[in-house]
């Protein structure tokens, strides 16, 4: 949203996502040297937040990931207040806390929601919190989870809720029907 502020990016044609990547080496590498592509997702992210510190890389635990990240050229983080010059210090503070490479250093959801930037729009009394984690044991269903199956299941889910919600009359329609019923029974 910060890139949509006229004060940060004056021409709408220049507005773009913060991380407009194209591939993510090695997962979606088209070529063996895709990691050198400036639009590789990790390169796009590191061009903004900088490459992780040695301590953050070590925290990963996975030796192959550590080796890959240690092999990347060092890049300094860009000052977020320069990227989004129209953003308030509170907005920059929240964004910086969310863009930490190391999840242990990254702001939690509760901390983010309690941040001063969101104070004017947050209504904690209206929030519902799950009493237990959401169970999503797709593998236990015995269905092979490939790309086509996943796309079909997502589409089925969207259609289910679209059909369900279209069957529920809107409040305005329900009120209109109640008023019409009341006026016809009184005449």
Structure report:
- The protein is an all-alpha fold and 187 residues long.
- The chain is 42% helix and 0% strand.
- The protein contains eight helices and no strands.
- The radius of gyration is 24 Å and the shape is extended.
- The termini are far apart.
**Gross morphology:** extended
Give the ordered list of helices and strands.
HHHHHHHH
- Rg on CA atoms, Å: 24 Å
- Largest sheet descriptor: none
Overall structural class, as computed from helix and strand content, comes to: mainly alpha
The mean pLDDT is 77
Strand content: under 5%
* Helix run count: 8
Number of strands: 0
Which percent range fits the helix content?
40-55%
Query: Alpha-carbon distance between the termini?
Result: 54 Å
* Residue windows where pLDDT falls under 50 for at least 5 positions: 176-187
Summarize the structure.
This protein is an all-alpha fold and 187 residues long. It has eight helices and no strands. It has helices spanning 41-49, 54-59, 63-70, 80-83, 89-98, 109-113, 147-167, 171-186.
Q: What are the key terms here?
A:
mainly alpha; 187 residues; extended; 42% helix
Can you lay out the helices and strands and say which pair or pack?
Blueprint: H1 41-49, H2 54-59, H3 63-70, H4 80-83, H5 89-98, H6 109-113, H7 147-167, H8 171-186
